[in-house]
Each structure stands twice: as C-alpha cells, then as structure tokens.
Design goal:
The chain is mainly alpha-helical. It contains 13 helices and 5 strands.
Amino acid sequence: MVDADGPATKLAATTVNRILAAVASFYEYVIMAGMFDRLNPIEKRPDPALQRVSERHRPFMSGASRQRPIRRAVRVKTVQRVPRPLSEAQVQALLAQLRRLRDRVIVLLMLQGGLRPGEVLGLHLEDIAYGRRRVVVRHRDDHPKGARSKSRYERVVDLHEAETLATLSAYVMDERPTDADSPLVFLIGGRGTRRLEALSYDGLVKMFTRATTRAGIRTPWVTPHACRHTHATAMWEGGMRELTLQKRLGHASPESTRIYTRVSDPAVVADYNQALGGQGTNDSEQR
C-alpha cells in the first residue's frame, strides 16, 4: 500500500488475501449483475489441473469445456506460523501484574480453560456452574460491544484448577458491580460513569497490553490469544487426545487443532536430551 505523504506500508499476506477476496467478490457481483462483461481479473485461468490434460485427451473434455472453467482466486503465499505458547516464567510474570480480580480471572479463563477472548467476554452469569466446576460457552449475537464466540456450537469447558473458579467467584461476589442489571459476567466496573457497561474486546486488549508491559514480556506475539495457545499446547503435551482437544477448544475442523500437535521447542529439546542419555545441552547452558 502506498501513502502519498510517506513511505509504502507493507501489509501482511493474510491482510492482502482478505483484500483480494473482497475485490474478487465485488467483480463476481458486477459480472452477475451484467455491469461488467469481462472475466474476473482477480482469478487465475486456467486451473493448473486442467493444463495437465494432454492434447490426446482434450476431446474428452468437450463436455466440461462448455461449463464455467474452474478458476482459482489470486492469493499471496502465506507462512503458516506455529502458535507460540507462553513460558511458565512469562505466565507467572503476567499473573503477578494483574491487580484486579476481573483482569486476573479473564486471563485465567484463557490460560486454564483455553477460551477465546470473545468467548470470555460473552460469558453470562448463568453460564457458570460452580458445583460442577465448569463454564458453558454459548454462541450469542447480543453483546453490546460486539464480542461473541467464534464457534456456533455450544460446548462445556471443565475448570478443575482451583484458582480459576475461586478467582471467578471472588470477582462476581466482591468486585463486580452489585447494582448491574446485565447478565454478562465481565463489566467495566470501577467507579467511573461507564462502570455498568460491558467490557469490550478493545478494553480487554488494553488491559492485557498494560499488564505485559509492566511484566516486561511484551512482544508482538504475546497477545490475549497466546494464552489460549499456551493452554492448548499444555493439554496436548500433557497427553490429551487430538479429538478431545478439538472438542475442548471448540474447533469445527481437526485441521485447526492439528497445529497444536506440533510439539513445542522445549519438548523437542527434552526428547533430544533424553535420547542422548541426558548428555545434551540444556536451556541454561545455551543461555
């Protein structure tokens, strides 16, 4: 992207692909509406699969040739990055900087429950089952600040770590505004005029950024979603089966879960050292 008043801005490949998809959809619309009489310029033609058909066999493709050619949208190649979980030291440094019960339990729900930020913000009081030590994640579209669950399927998330439910209970009983009519668990709170409003995603991110900055662990990849990555990686390396992990995380496709089955670097080093009979270089020696 070029700025007339400054240097060019480099966009991420995923951002470019979203833009290309939007432009391709626009061309599809104007073509269908009869407002554009050419081929969609945001599509490759022909499909490479059709190019592999030899001249000898092309007569057999005559029936398919009268149909709309199969095309592939123009896309920029993207690098599939393996999620980077937080280390135990980073987790403890982060938790030490969370001064409010609300902020602490939000992070714990992502770290120990694997919830997405939007799922945490969308929790209702009725979704908490203290006796059964679990929360129910439901898809709703009525959050006043637009937060919602990515998955459309309801799922139950067990929380057997005592700290998470204890902190959640303390927040609801002692810190959450008692005069709030909202069914949502997480409100802005405090003493300001907006104390009864629902906490937004931007508010969550700002809280998280302040905490990571104070903890000295702020980097581009240390985001609220990294807490979910941390939980997923810990569950997988702790022995949770792929199908069970998929259900716990609320993934519709096993492909989304499979990215966590790539063991973390510390796990690779540990197995390597074990294979060498403990003669490998440990992390402290590397540093």
